[in-house]
Amino acid sequence: MTLTEPQPAAGSEPVFSPALSPQEGVEAATTLFRDCFGAAPDGVWYAPGRVNVIGEHTDYNGGLALPIALPHRAHLALRRREDRTIRLVSPQTRESIDVLDLDAIGPKGTPGEVRHWNAYVAGVAWALERDGLGPLSGFDAALYSCVPLGGGLSSSAALECATAVALNDVCSLGLAGTAQEPDDAGRARLVNSCIRAENEMAGAPTGGMDQSASMRCRAGHALELDCRDGSVTHVPFDLAAAGLTLLVIDTKAKHSLVDGQYGARRSACERAAEILGVELLADITGGALEDALGRLRESGAADAEVLVTRTRHVVSEIDRTRDLVSLLQDGAPLVGERLARAGALMDASHESLRVDYEVTCPELDVAVEAAREAGAHGARMTGGGFGGSAIALVDSDAVDTVARAVVDAYAAHGFAAPAFLNAVPSAPAGRLA
Ligand code: ADP
Ligand code: MG
User: Do 129 and 136 touch, CB atoms closer than 8 A?
Assistant: First the structure.
């Protein structure tokens, strides 16, 4: 654990990370652009961070995930250039503008490698061209994001998707539609280029859930994403109508070993699928789980028991995701018995990730337990694990009580203070000005 911040005292006020309003986002990005480039941008585009409601570590197994888009967005003021130069600036780097050449940049580990956040922006232009959507032109861009960085809320995909919708418009790719009337098939193509940018240019071997959420969610809905084929269903998720809030708890914890552990989970799943003779663990249905676990136990693999627990998580998590979708899909308010069942599915997801998949950490477990004890209907870690964020489904009038309980529990454990945000299911990437 890295403790970089002062420890909070019990009774400290919970700190909420605010989302910029669209107007504030436009103003902040435009002002930065004008200050640094001395001209007005062609427009301002944005893309949201995301949080996954349920369906964790299922994406690379061809299973289901259920993310929502956050009101927290990356804003990008951008102006098309006539040449192939890319100039980038952010509030943290406003003293020096980064200058890149679209003809010279290339994947991580090659001479054209692009540094830090520039890889997520310039990388999308590079990937769009590699995916046959070029040639594009260069551009100047100013980034202003309020997606918490590295909190498991997909600040990286927000950069990529904001860039993709901006380039789609200024280079007339005709693929995105608008946030209100999205062209979903076109957006699915843009998603692929964003994933390519993240995998190849930034060198992060992530699945496609983050980019799909940022680009393809709908306001007031969760996105049922079938990671086998990228198909989506929009599931009504109007929490406010039921007097509920999805509270995000950013643990601020970042444990080492994350990369190695992620790879180890992936390869355990691949080996289990191979032993079971299926392409992906999503091919094992819930009814066939016990038989599959028996075969893994008898496989003679040195780590057979590990393969059993990893498989049990993945298959049961896909079932839980399907169950939550079926609770939500008719759009009836989440109250009474249905609310209790939704909360129980979230709790069971966390237990499975803690015990069978072993990707939680003390900060995540303490956040979840404290939230439940303070009255949350259900709570779970979200994202890859080993830090990042947890979510709790709470009555809207209990948000403060639950947040305070988590702050106090963190103080009692000597953890750095967490941050909170209100996860209102919001609109996908689009243009603001
Ligand atoms: P997450 O996507 O969960 O927030 P990642 O590690 O995937 O975490 O992405 C974080 C990276 O994205 C940062 O290291 C940085 O390179 C880039 N990034 C995201 N938002 C910003 C920002 N506002 N300013 C600069 N870099 C950013
Ligand atoms: Mg990311």
Answer: yes
